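Good morning,

Attaching, inline, the backbone tokens for the sequence recovery test we're adding to the shared suite. The designed sequence is right after.
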């Protein structure tokens, strides 16, 4: 019974923290992706932290602490680019993106690297 009470207190604390974070996320929700860049965002609807690249090549997102974190994409380069989800023992999964994606569906928090042509 005592354990249950501690658990309930922890849940209440988490709820209060989440509410306090919301305004900060809203402030960073409108970071602009410059023309000629691919931008990955931490949250859906282009919110949170944003990373951007304009040069061709493979970008390993772990180099920026961003592996499994992308939740929306803006692609302001010409043409498409390829995203990869590394599954270890299984073959890598690939998906082609071209344009803007306010949410990534089953690929949310899955992208490990991108390849810009
Ligand atoms: Ca992944």
């Amino acid at each position: 019974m005592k354990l249950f009470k501690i658990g309930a207190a922890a849940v209440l604390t988490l709820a209060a923290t989440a509410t306090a974070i919301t305004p900060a996320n809203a402030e960073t929700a409108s970071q602009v992706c410059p023309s000629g860049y691919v931008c990955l965002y931490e949250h859906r609807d282009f919110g949170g932290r944003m990373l951007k690249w304009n040069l061709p090549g493979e970008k390993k997102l772990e180099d920026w602490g961003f592996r499994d974190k992308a939740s929306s994409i803006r692609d302001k380069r010409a043409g498409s680019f390829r995203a990869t989800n590394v599954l270890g023992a299984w073959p890598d999964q690939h998906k082609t993106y071209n344009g803007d994606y306010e949410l990534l569906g089953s690929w949310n928090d899955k992208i490990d690297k991108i390849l810009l042509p």
